[in-house]
# Entry
Amino acid sequence: VKAHEYYMRTRELKGRTSTAGLNEAGKSAAKYVREQLNNEKKEKINASREATNAQVSASSESTKKSINSKREKMKATLESHKTEMNSKISSLRQKIKSMTKEQKLRQGDAILDEIAALREANNETRKELQSQFSSDSSKLRESHRSTASSLREGHKQTSAAAKEEYNKKYEEELEKIKNTASFKKVSKRRKKS
# Structure
């Protein structure tokens, strides 16, 4: 009893696509219709897939370009900051070289502390810029991932809708074929006497 109930439920859900009551011409017509509809469905799904892949690829390229431009900007900022720091350090070293021994004893430690502070400031700036770049690139990558995911989900929905649409079309066409008298099997029953 349970098996029969399951059969009736699933048969209703899937629809009836059997060609059991058809003659050879009817079966070949049903096969032709199924092939044509399958080809249309595949074309529609492939077009959707290609469009989705193109959009994902464009998003990926855009993300890469943005990350590369941010990287170049960070490198340029670091280089200019490093150049500025090096020029200050070299001017302080020149100042130390031009001092007398007494001035070096009085001000030498202060100048060396100033050089160390400049280096420390440079390291802090470098770390800050790198963490900012890392944060920005992570946000861009996450944005790309969510965009790609939503595009792929849209493709899945389009594919599912196309499959459903073409299954319904096939069922309708099969029903038309079954209702056509020239495609029905002629029953050969013997009359009992």
Observations:
- Helices lie at 2-14, 24-97, 101-179.
- The CA atoms of residues 109 and 179 lie 104 Å apart.
